[in-house]
Write a structure and sequence with these properties.
eight-stranded mixed β-sheet, homodimer, globular, 442 residues, Fumarylacetoacetate hydrolase, domain 2, alpha+beta, 19% helix, 2 domains, 12 helices
Chain lengths: 442, 442
Amino acid sequence: MTLDRSHDAQRSSWVASAQADGTDFPIQNLPYGRFRRAGSQEPWRIGVAIGDQILDLAAARPAPGWPAELAPQLDALAGGDLAAVMAAPKATRVALRLALSDALAAGSTQQAALAHALVPQSAAEMTLPCPIGDYTDFYASIHHATTIGRMFRPDNPLLPNYRWVPIGYHGRASSINVSGTPIRRPLGQTKPAGSPPEAPPVFGPCQRLDYELELGAFVAQGNTQGEPVPLAQAEDRLAGMVLLNDWSARDIQAWEYQPLGPFLSKNFGSTISPWLVTMEALAPYRVPFVRAAGEPDPLPHLDSPANRETGAIDLTIEVWLQTAAMRERGEAAVRLSRGNFKESYWTLAQLLTHHASNGCNLATGDLLGTGTQSGPKPEEAGSLLELSMGGKTPVALPGGETRSFLADGDTLTLRAYAQKQGGPRIGFGDCSGTVLPSPKLG
Amino acid sequence: MTLDRSHDAQRSSWVASAQADGTDFPIQNLPYGRFRRAGSQEPWRIGVAIGDQILDLAAARPAPGWPAELAPQLDALAGGDLAAVMAAPKATRVALRLALSDALAAGSTQQAALAHALVPQSAAEMTLPCPIGDYTDFYASIHHATTIGRMFRPDNPLLPNYRWVPIGYHGRASSINVSGTPIRRPLGQTKPAGSPPEAPPVFGPCQRLDYELELGAFVAQGNTQGEPVPLAQAEDRLAGMVLLNDWSARDIQAWEYQPLGPFLSKNFGSTISPWLVTMEALAPYRVPFVRAAGEPDPLPHLDSPANRETGAIDLTIEVWLQTAAMRERGEAAVRLSRGNFKESYWTLAQLLTHHASNGCNLATGDLLGTGTQSGPKPEEAGSLLELSMGGKTPVALPGGETRSFLADGDTLTLRAYAQKQGGPRIGFGDCSGTVLPSPKLG
């Protein structure tokens, strides 16, 4: 897409905290979210994050100065319906972003009318940005797939289909939670290592609880069942992105996953960050989609000059951990890894086009997970399973603690941001969850 | 559950066609569905099938004589909301069934007031009985799993987890259609047999399109995330059943399914029958859940006396095929197979309890598929892949046609019914779909 004044790195906001060092939400970002007054039972409202504030779009709607042609979208947002805006044509979404940027820019004629429509983020609670219809999780990092494959199949780490098929599977929509929701350690069937083949499995608390560092992309406009989506149209059908923690029970997974894939090892809960960072906000950070030398070109329906030129996104992704002991000692979280989404073996557009290539109908609000995003270096791995080499090399933490897998009380936080040297930081906010003990047995 | 007068095989209805030979919808059935006048754009209404008619529950609501305590449920049904009734406690659902049975029984004082509330089924079009949140498909027939496993892994047909884990995976909710919706042959990636390992796959129309004979169970009441559902509560959380055709692209499946399971080979479309046959209607057909000698007992959380005594359902299931040539010659469909759901290796209650055992939250309107239900005999197989032995022994049809897999123009119909000698037939209605050619490439 063409960049416009909403992307100008020099643009500032009349909301002072939007200029704060390290803020995830400068005026160049403007992500959407659903919020209400913390602790209230009010209906959820749509807001735009700006600095440490939220522009409440219900309170903002009556202000004079909004472009008349955006009335349907502004009315939908004021009514709490983000999906209606996600489903709008790309040009409309671009125009809406520009209107919001102009309204919040320093010198805006709307400042006086909008000042009362700000709500401090610290006073708000968030929920999912929109209802999620179907949730699909992909496996788009070849580094993750290779490392995991090496553990399970040392002779044949990467299956022959990997380089051709954007491998994916359907996940559980109902158990996706917003950041801050605790995650309960699941019970499940496992087959303890070394137990004889004929021995029954055991049922009890997961012993190998893990996180997965993923991005999620929300579908903007869907397609009719039976009608594929050409790659050239795929980008415009993406609304924006969130962080996604695909919590995983590795011991349950190992026992259950053949032949139909992961199920109870994943669907006990997933966590996403609350702010929908729009594809428009990420436009300045698009970079060429480049595969390593020797990798094949995608099949023609998954390949295009535009996808090669700007299909990838330069997006730093991080994992942070704070254990219960660290929290008691007043210590901040430590970073477990840092990578970049541009290393993905498939672009978001390829994932969407592949998904619809058989005529599967996607809908506004569907969530596409990228799969664990691990980089080429071991320290860029997006899961503890990888960082600890399947538990063989526990990760050292402050105070003498170690982790092969997550312990009760651990708070795991994903972060992501796109940023150029000296420019604004297009941040995603935290995607965070604390592990609770498993339910009692029986 | 206790049987009541609604189950009395001698009970007859003032709707004459409910007594017709072979009807799926005698007064002992009373399944719910969503319908509207065919070709209209009216809102969908809830009805109960009776003979060849539908009792329109919006038109029936004002009639005098309904039990006052059922007003909330009758109002919900009149308003088109079946989910509200599904979510009601079991006792309420039982009482509602009894009220509907009494209203439609011969000699009912409500007959005169309800006669105008009947709509011929031939004048109605149907949609899904309720919105489907999440859809899960299981793999509950050991005969199907063994036959399929033998094709892919001759030395090791049944994986070690099969006898312990009710294997399942998440399917696509958005592409589930009601009976009568055509199914478009999907495009997809396949790796032709005999092509060298390093050769790219091809992208084109599926060459091995198949059906799968399944039952689907709708969830009545859901559970809170993190809180498993004990087996003793599972039956009451099931609302009812439908037929489910899990159309499958076998060539796409073979290439894509490792390591995360089937995806595009399944999610291009699934078909269900329109009438929700309630668990109450099926109560007289519950039979002991018996596994073959030598099979292990389920783990304790998946085992109970009640599940052993009445966990299974004696339900005949059939597959019928009419090719385009047969249709042109005016020939009726031929039966490809007949089996019985009581052969399932897992009961519906076990599937639900397993699903929630890790805390996964189920919700009203979720659909649980049983997986292909194949019986112990080869002719009881629930897919063409099995009947044709992977395409090696094509199935002979009238007029000299054969089928290893489905051809464009084929109409595939699933049927099911529970019936005792000389008693009423608790039928499911047709679950039908006709194969359309694939979209044009590129």
